[in-house]
């Protein structure tokens, strides 16, 4: 029989209703691969940051049965530097081998519990300074949409909870299922860049050109040796203007974005074809199979052969 992974979502006082519903919506669209339960620290209703409370069906005891625990985000006014006793007691029920995920400000909860000490993590860009003051022992990366640090995953604000949940589906069951889930939920299966692109910026001058067309063109020519000058020329901008505007819009440099897109394409080909590693490298624009191996390992920590064994078996 196919294993059904249990996801338990922990709702705390001050929870954002939108973020609380993300795990159920995403994992619930994954063809029965997951079971999603929602609990509170005492089994009682929790106050949301809206004008209503939320009744949950379970108490903290279900945390001990979870394969994955998702802590939903809370309004900043509910953030405390120390962990309340009832929250600490609830988190203590989580199995040592369970995966733990935070959405947005819930990174404060994991950090206060000591789970993020010495680890890389992220949270919403608006509370970055507060987080760093409270938890200097955490390696905070404010520029990304989510961080996968093995057993612990943290995500940035609000909709990045969708990104991290889709990433988990992709990691567990491959890109085909993750893409299908994204289509059912009418969201992009993979968002470009990081949260830097969402930080408040001065309003651009009216009529300012976008790099979107150049990005679309690049995705259609990933198998070619694309240089920054090629992208800038396609966008009709100088190199300096293009590089600046690209980072403003995407949150990454053009070079880093290209590598990211090539790795995404390579993962799809490893899952869906029997092409050799060298052939796939050529298809996605890496000069050699060794280069593909290097970039794939840097992105997801495995070799092309190991990735293919896992996800072709899933397919």
Task: Describe the fold and architecture.
The chain is of the alpha/beta class and 315 residues long. It folds into two domains: 5-185, Rossmann fold; 204-315, Orthogonal Bundle (Arc Repressor Mutant, subunit A), CATH 1.10.10. 43% of the residues lie in helices and 11% in strands. It contains 13 helices and ten strands. A six-stranded mixed beta sheet has the order 2-1-5-6-10-9. Strand 3 and strand 4 (53-54) form a beta hairpin. Helix 5 (160-173) packs antiparallel against helix 6 and helix 11 crosses helix 12 (289-300). The longest helix has 19 residues, at 254-272. Mean pLDDT is 90; it is low at 201-207.
C-alpha Rg, in Å? 21 Å
Strand content: 5-15%
Given the C-alpha coordinates, what overall shape results?
globular
DSSP summary, beta strand count: 10
Largest sheet: 6 strands, mixed
Order of helices and strands: EHEEEEHEHEHEEEHHHHHHHHH
Write the layout of secondary structure elements.
Elements: E1 5-10, H1 17-27, E2 34-39, E3 46-47, E4 53-54, E5 68-71, H2 85-91, E6 99-102, H3 107-112, E7 120-121, H4 128-134, E8 139-140, E9 146-149, E10 152-155, H5 160-173, H6 175-185, H7 212-220, H8 228-235, H9 239-250, H10 254-272, H11 277-284, H12 289-300, H13 304-314
Parallel strand pairs: 1-2, 1-5, 5-6, 6-10, 7-8
Antiparallel strand pairs: 3-4, 9-10
Helix pairs in contact: 1-5, 5-6, 7-8, 8-9, 10-11, 10-12, 10-13, 11-12
What's the gist of this structure?
The chain is of the alpha/beta class and 315 residues long. 43% of the residues lie in helices and 11% in strands. Helix 1 packs parallel to helix 5 (160-173) and helix 10 (254-272) crosses helix 11 (277-284).
């Amino acid at each position: 029989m196919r294993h059904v992974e249990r996801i338990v979502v922990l709702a705390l006082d001050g929870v954002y209703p939108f973020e609380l519903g993300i795990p159920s919506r995403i994992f619930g669209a994954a063809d029965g691969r997951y079971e999603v339960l929602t609990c509170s620290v005492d089994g009682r209703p929790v106050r949301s940051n809206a004008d209503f409370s939320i009744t949950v069906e379970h108490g903290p005891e279900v945390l001990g049965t979870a394969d994955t625990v998702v802590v939903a985000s809370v309004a900043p006014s509910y953030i405390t530097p120390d962990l309340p006793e009832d929250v600490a007691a609830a988190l203590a029920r989580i199995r040592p081998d369970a995966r733990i995920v935070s959405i947005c400000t819930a990174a404060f909860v994991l950090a206060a519990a000591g789970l993020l000490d010495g680890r890389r993590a992220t949270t919403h860009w608006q509370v970055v300074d507060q987080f760093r003051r409270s938890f200097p022992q955490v390696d905070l990366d404010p520029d990304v949409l989510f961080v996968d640090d093995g057993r612990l995953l943290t995500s940035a604000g609000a909709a990045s909870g969708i990104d991290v949940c889709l990433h988990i589906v992709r990691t567990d069951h491959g890109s085909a299922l993750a893409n299908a889930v994204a289509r059912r939920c009418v969201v992009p299966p993979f968002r470009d860049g990081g949260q830097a692109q969402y930080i408040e910026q001065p309003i651009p001058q009216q009529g300012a050109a976008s790099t979107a067309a150049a990005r679309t063109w690049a995705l259609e020519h990933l198998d070619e040796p694309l240089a920054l000058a090629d992208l800038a020329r396609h966008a009709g901008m100088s190199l300096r203007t293009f590089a600046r505007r690209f980072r403003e819009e995407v949150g990454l440099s053009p070079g880093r974005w290209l590598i990211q897109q090539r790795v995404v394409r390579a993962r799809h080909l490893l899952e869906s074809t029997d092409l050799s590693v060298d052939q796939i490298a050529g298809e996605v624009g890496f000069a050699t199979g060794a280069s593909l191996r290097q970039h794939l390992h840097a992105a997801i920590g495995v070799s092309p052969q190991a990735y293919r064994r896992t996800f072709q078996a899933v397919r």
